Amino acid sequence: MKKHLYPLILLAFLALLPLAVKSNYFLHLMILFLLWVVIGSSWNILAGYTGQVSFGHAAFFGVGAYTAGLLFQHLQLSPWWGMALGGVVAVLIGLPFGAICFPLRGAYFALASLALGEGIRHITTIAEGFTGGMMGIMIMPTFTSKVPYYYIALGLAILSVASIQAIISSKPGYYFVSIREDQDAAASLGINTTLYKNISLAISAFWTGMAGALYMNYMGFIDPHVVFSLHDYSVMAILVAIVGGVGTIYGPTVGAFIMVAFQELFRTGFFGLFEYLGKATGSPAFTTLSGAIHQAHVLGFGILVIVVILFLPNGVVGDWEKIKRNVFRINPAG
Amino acid sequence: MDVFLQTLVAGILKGGLYALIGIGMTLIMGVMGIINLAHGQLMMLAMYVTFVLNTMGVDPYVSLFVAMPLLFLLGVTIQKFLLNPLIKVETILPENQVLMTVGIGMVLTEIARFAFSSDYKYITTGYANQTFYLGNISFSMALTIAFAIALAFTAAMFWFLLKTDLGRSIRATAQDKDAATLMGVNTGRITVVTFGLGSALVAAAGCLLAPVYYIFPDLGGPFTAKAFIITILGGLGSTVGAIFGGVTLGLAESMGATYFGMEYEDIVGLTIFILVLLFLPGGFKRLTKV
Amino acid sequence: MAYFRVEKLVKKFGGLTAVNDVTFDVEKGEIFGLIGPNGSGKTTTFNMISGVYPPTSGRVVFRDREIQGMKSHRICHLGVGRTFQVVKPLGRMTVLDNVIAASFSRVNSMREARSTALRTLEFCGLSPVQEVLAKSLPIAGRKRLEIARAMATRPELLLLDETAAGLNPTELVEAIELIRKIRENGTTVIIIEHIMHVIMTISDRIHAINFGQTIAEGTPKEVAANPAVIEAYLGTDYA
Q: What per-residue confidence (pLDDT) applies to C118?
């Protein structure tokens, strides 16, 4: 019972947050956090639960974002239609990809997905007439305050996590994990592995696409380099899930929190620590270092990947027992 | 006709270089069964080594003797401390070995960026920028030298794999790790040596490429992609196939550049990749089996 | 028409002919044994029947319906279940979850799947270990889990591939009992087995193959006395 209480408490906390905190900067971070809960959880459905690792989730994110943006630019439809359709279009991209690439085993599927992400990025950049190419798309955000976006993001996060949880504890969920564990055994037990892999992919692409559409609406500007970024979206999605815990419901939520904090840590040079030190000591070295750290977030990601895979491969949630033992020195009796 | 021959020549010469990149990767893939997504980044490092030595007046072709051992050591270190341990790690995490190489690639790229900034760097050599002519066809001196050296390395590789004990042990491990262990091969050591070898080979490719290309931290990514395309074109784990794949890609890029335009070079690679995925039974079918 | 028939089955892998013109019928309610030395083509035959790969030529007919070439999951839905020679537990799931996953082939709700699974586990004697992770089970448990999983798909015909290999004498007795129970429950069984004691004891009829071809068929007694069979098994006769 206690386990079920934590998410509810978190939920209440998140719902009431904007009433207490007015800082735009903080709200922005929270919106990013919620977006990553969605993206990380959807990546997790495909990879953590079904065992199909995608290195190209940026494709779905970007496609969702562009759907929202292009609907506005070409059809003058409110970008909120993009929210509705962004997920759908992402699925439409994902299904043919799955049809071609699911027979590929393991790492080759991962590479094909990498090619998908990069390929769509290239195409979007080249198809200038339709997408605006490198100029990107700019729209006027509907709301001036961040609060409505926050609640929409929260709603999206709740919907995605709740639906994923419902799926995991039912037939499709069992089927996903069976496919992950042993595809041939799964087939012998009556599981249509192709169908269920595609279902998993569709769910995954759908939520990620929705997140992309929300991003378009919230940020107001996108370009191929940003939304299809391998490091900032595809790899970040993987990190969110593995740092938090693949194959767990709330792992990606924990991971999203850690990763957004981590990313912000780098962007601000350890939350302005180095700049402060620079001013305090008068030494220019600190300021330079602060600038360098700002650039170094990709390096940080790379090191994090290495460290997590070596020492904490099941993430904070998955390896919680290990963390308790080694970091907090809590040894269970016996 | 001349244009065609010119393109052909350029493609084949480049292909020799690509083959060297491919052999390194296919060796690693064959023996360890992992895809090294940091392969291009290793080459990038070798190119920077060449650059640094060049500023000190060292000829890029002499840099081979420095870069190759250096990268060999780096490869050995990576395999021993970052990749071998993963075999024992208990995790749901699918493809954690591939992910690990992605992380390594990122780290290598960023370290290079930190050390050298993102500016494009160039190598200047007196003779290598020249061209010589056979009939109406111009041959880039640098590419020709690269081709010759790549050929030499490839031949050496074959001799090594076929005639030496270590080479045979590597082939044995590639075919069946357990059987090799049972026959007294220290497979742990072999995987380490193989990664080192693969790194050294791609380092050689880097030194050879440096005179004709520009050097920047992010070139790792595209070249890893090329390495992968070459490898699957030629069939995974096949050194002969890597040669075939390398020359094919070299020719395709050359044709693409001549007949479609320089910007299309990368698209060529991507297109081949997709075509292989869709149509090439030998290359593709292998990917569908475990 | 026989309840189940394998007719002129051939399987070639490149230049190697693994199964060469095998034909046999199985009657409803039988326990039908398939024996042969290692590499004789028994598991390949099973693989063709259960849809792992299609035959090069030949037919597989189950209840008047041709099933050769169909996908595994469809064949399962039609009522043919199987276990694998090299067991394939869904390792990171519990024993119960393994069987629940199998139960979903016949029901859709979580509640029904769970109750089917619990009953199946009870039937197969696995209830005590239902919360254990499949990968933590010893070999006897894993073999039993293979059977339980297949049974949860409510097969009319069950293919058992060397379920007795690696078991100690006590476990063997229990395995034989379980197989008998399965037949009594109404399932027809085709069993591949190396351990002569097991297959001779429980089979109604036996079909012997070697190098992919039929060498004998008949009651256990007849087959055991057959010179071709004895020759094929020289040195491994447990009877």
A: 96
Any C CB within 8 A of A174 CB: yes
| Residue A296, amino acid | A
Q: How is chain B split into domains, by residue range? A: 2-217
Question: Hey, is C39 helix, strand or coil?
Answer: coil
How close does chain A come to B133, measured CA to CA in Å?
37
Strands (E), chain C: 4-13, 16-26, 31-35, 57-62, 65-66, 80-82, 157-161, 188-192, 205-210, 213-218
Domains, chain C, ordered by start: 4-238 (3.40.50.300)
- Tell me which chain A residues have a C-beta less than 8 angstroms from the C-beta of C101: 174-175, 177-178, 186, 189, 191
Residues A110-136, mean pLDDT to the nearest whole number: 87
Q: Which residues of A touch C92 (CB under 8 A)?
A: 177, 181
**Overall average pLDDT of the C10-18 stretch:** 90
- Please tell me which residue of chain C has the smallest CA distance to A175: C101
Question: What one-letter code names the amino acid at C28?
Answer: K
Measured CA to CA, the distance from residue A179 to residue A173 in angstroms comes to 10
Tell me what the mean pLDDT of segment C215-236 comes to: 82
- DSSP strand pairing (C4-13 vs C57-62): antiparallel
A190 touches chain C (CB under 8 A): yes
Where is pLDDT greater, at A204 or B233? A204
Q: Which residue among A115, A295, A298 sits closest to B106, beta carbon to beta carbon?
A: A298
SS3 content of chain B, % helix, strand, coil (to 5): 80, 5, 20
Is residue B289 predicted with pLDDT exceeding 50?
no
ipTM for the complex shown: 0.91
In tens, the pLDDT along C120-144 reads 999 999 999 999 999 999 999 999 9
In this structure, the strands spanning C31-35 and B137-140 are unpaired
